[in-house]
Amino acid sequence: MISKLFFFYFLFIYVCRPLLDSVLPSLPPTVSDLDVPPLLREHFILSGYRPLGLPWRCCVLSLLQIHNQTLTTWSLLLAALALLLRFTGFAFLRGLSVDPTSLPLVLYFISAIADLSCSAAANVLHCRSEEMHYFLFFLHSVSAAVYQYGCALALSLYSVDAIWTQSMLGQVYLPLTAILSWLSCALCCYTKLTLRSKFAIHRRICRLFPMGVAFLVIMGPFVRRLTIYRWSNGPALMLHFFQVVLFLLSTFFFCFPVPECFAPGHYDLAGNSHHVYHALRSLCTLVQQEALFHDFLWRRPALVRQMGEQHLLLTCISFFCPMVCCSMTALAMRSRARAELEKEQR
Ligand SMILES: *[C@@H]1O[C@H](CO)[C@@H](O)[C@H](O)[C@H]1NC(C)=O
Q1: pLDDT digits (tens, 9 = 90+) for 298-309
Q2: Ligand 1 surroundings by CB, under 6 angstroms
Q3: How does the protein associate with the membrane (predicted)?
Q4: Would you tell me which of 139, 146, 154, 267 could form a disulfide with 271, CB atoms 3.0–4.6 Å apart?
């Protein structure tokens, strides 16, 4: 055992380190907040910034460097990997076939992976240029909205019973969440452009408001389950509940720069509110997928009989509506950002 450890230690020291060292020196060291444009600055984070204008290669390689976003990026990538492995495992074990009943689950999975990867990409690559910073932020807003709708779709099909589907809320639920997802994407992009870093807190609240409303509506089916079935209804409800708690906790860290506001500069590389927020959100996604697996097995047998195959397929196709609307909004915002950057340079 000990000899094995020594073997790996020497392998690392004599083979990997020189290799890493030959690649990493090409990376510029991290800089302080005053060395990056205000657009990139975060309150109470004083160091650990990568300089703006890094070549693509350096952006990607900075995954191996310690800077203020290393932890965030890795937690997102690991969560995506865990989600993928868990989904593949479930698909094999339960013999997930390609049929209309499993389509919403697959769409949910795709939207969750897209959200995590776009967020990771935005974290790694945004220091390429200011324009890229905007573009990746908008892309991430689109993926977040698509994920919101993916959740709503899966919840409204798997996590409720037929009575809810026929109720008033059940009828307007999906169109309403589609509009709210689009609104939160549009507001995120818009506030990013108009309220620059000076108003970081305002911006966060402006973003949080539509996201919060969307979340409350999206959790509608869960509230009904909670009032009707209580806790005896298997582990799914517990998982949904846990997911809500994680979401609320993460929202707290999204809004308030805790703990770094108490000790500016102390949490630059690890432990600041961004790190905690992303770690909690990633965990939230994993828990939600788990809950949906349970719900899927519970609802699957009756789904086609109650809804009809055609209706189910049409519902799944609606997945693409918010996606198209949000992408178009983001593209429009991108040209606006470009125009503004050009105006500033002149
Ligand atoms: C980390 O640094 C980047 C610039 O490299 C900056 O855009 C970002 O806002 C910083 N994030 C945190 C959490 O400090």
Answers
A1: 899 999 998 899
A2: 36, 40, 42, 45, 49-50, 68-69, 127, 272, 274
A3: Multi-pass membrane protein
A4: 267
Q: Calculate the average pLDDT of the chain.
A: 89
**Which residues touch 262 (CB under 8 Å, ≥6 apart)?**
none
Ligand 1 closest atom vs CA 51: 5
SS3 category, 49: strand
Inter-helix orientation angle 130-158/200-218, to 10°: 20
Considering only CA atoms, which of 117, 114, 107, 125 is closest in space to residue 75? Answer: 117
Lowest mean pLDDT among 42-51, 102-111, 200-209: 200-209
Res 14 pLDDT > 80: no
Residue 234 DSSP label: -
Query: Given this model, what pLDDT does residue 260 score?
Result: 94
Q: Are 79 and 285 in contact (CB under 8 A)?
A: yes
* Nearest-angstrom CA–CA distance, 265 and 88: 41
Nearest-CA residue for atom 8 of ligand 1 = 40
Burial class (CB in 10 A: 0-12, 13-18, 19+), 45: buried
For the chain, state the CA radius of gyration: 22
Residues contacting residue 65 through CB under 8 Å, at least 6 positions apart? 24, 27, 30, 50
Instruction: Specify binding-site residues for Zn(2+).
Output: 274, 278
Instruction: Decide if pLDDT at 162 tops 90.
Output: no
Residue 205 · residue 220 · CB < 8 Å: no
**Residue 324's pLDDT band (cuts 50, 70, 90):** very high
Residues 6+ apart with CB under 8 A from 136: 118, 121, 122, 125, 126
pLDDT of 262 strictly over 60: yes
- Mutation test residue for ligand 1: of 27, 35, 49, the one with most atoms within 8 Å of CB: 49
